[in-house]
Design a protein that fits this description.
By secondary structure, the protein is mainly alpha-helical. It is built from 10 helices and no strands. α4 runs antiparallel to α5 and α6 packs antiparallel against α7.
Length: about 200
């Protein structure tokens, strides 16, 4: 039986940081003891930003990259400390093949939130594209150290160990983590993992 080997093309099959919408909505719910009345202007602004972010995510999901970029830039101007906007701008720049710009955006995302797994994963992808394999490995490891069940980072690590570093034991480990944490069935990767495991068993 022949197996289809997983490819690097899957490394961009992600939708980033939708959960960062919650950061915006949470701002409107904060009340200090000496100001018990909600500031309506602040609430309205937060609602507008929430809708702006949602619209940007929808545009990105629809692959309307120019619209998504414009919306995320607007969001980054209104809420510059929200790392999600910068990470999504990095993803858009990768899709538009502007890797230098993507790297700048990814760095900004990590400056805003050094624990953001998605931004580390993107940084790993960018390092990998430049041939900086060991840097890529460290960035992917950083991603999963911040989010241990981050399936895509495990997948990227598996590919790195499999294709570039020729460490099949590590590759198998991270393919297994990927399949365990991935929300969808991936038959190609399952078959490839079986092939690797059979090869390892035959060589032992």
């Amino acid at each position: 039986m022949s197996y289809i080997k997983p490819t690097l093309n899957n490394t961009l099959s992600i939708t980033l940081v939708i959960i960062f919408i919650m950061t915006i909505s949470a701002c409107s719910n904060q009340v200090t003891s000496n100001k018990p009345v909600t500031n309506n202007k602040t609430t309205e602004s937060s609602i507008e930003e929430l809708q702006l972010y949602k619209n940007a995510i929808v545009a990105l999901n629809n692959n309307d990259l120019d619209q998504a970029k414009a919306l995320f830039i607007s969001m980054s101007e209104r809420q510059p400390n929200i790392a999600g906007s910068w990470a999504n701008l990095a993803l858009i720049s990768i899709k538009q093949k502007d890797l230098a710009q993507a790297e700048d955006y990814a760095k900004t995302a990590l400056e805003k939130n050094p624990n953001m797994a998605q931004a580390w994963n993107l940084s790993g992808y960018l390092a990998q594209k430049k041939g900086e394999i060991h840097n890529a490995k460290n960035y992917y490891l950083k991603a999963i150290s911040n989010k241990s069940d981050y399936a895509l980072a495990h997948y990227n690590l598996a590919l790195l160990f499999d294709i570039y570093l020729q460490d099949i034991t590590k590759a198998i480990e991270h393919y297994q983590f990927y399949l365990a944490y991935n929300g969808e069935k991936d038959e190609n990767t399952e078959n490839w993992l079986e092939s690797l495991q059979a090869t390892m068993a035959a060589n032992n």
